[in-house]
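Z., the sequence and structure:
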Amino acid sequence: MPARGQFGYLGSTPEGEKGKWTWGLSKLATRILLGGYRGMTAWGRMVAHEAKTGPWVPVDTSHMAGNIRAGTVQVEPTAKFRILVGLGSEVPYARAQEMGSGLFAEFGPKEKIEIWAGWMNPGMTKSLNAKMALAIQWANGPGAGSPGYQTEGKWAGYNVMARVMHPGVKPNKFLRAAFAQTAIAGRRVFLKAIKAQLTG
């Protein structure tokens, strides 16, 4: 269905009171586009839910899973629908979890990452947060008597360091796994929403 840039949308969502559909198209085309908008919104929410609750997302804390969300559907001039599902800047390590980092990065240079303890890096250019401690249980490491090795307190048995060259993390692909898991059901929801507009 060629639209050729003849349609647009003014407002926050199609259901918004202040919104207004302005189509240079037929009523049929308008219904298809509205149904597609609603269907893609539902599909995006399915992906976000699957990513939050599926077995792939890291669950050391609930911070990452709790910030996965679906964005707003974008309708392109060629009548293509697009929605972004993911995380924002509040989870700075999300990209590394999805696509890998350091020696395991899927994109960009494959090299170790220099990471500093938060208290040494006030500008946060090489730290994840200001309170982060580099406390590592070093298997087959130098152990007791080596600089940084703790024998008592919270970090007993750990090597506490000022900075390390970290090899990075392997890609977890939790967002891509969620998309693959919902692909069939998502397409059904998308088409069902268009059909509802055409038959309603």
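The two ends are 21 Å apart (CA to CA). The chain has a mean pLDDT of 78.

Let me know what you think.
H.
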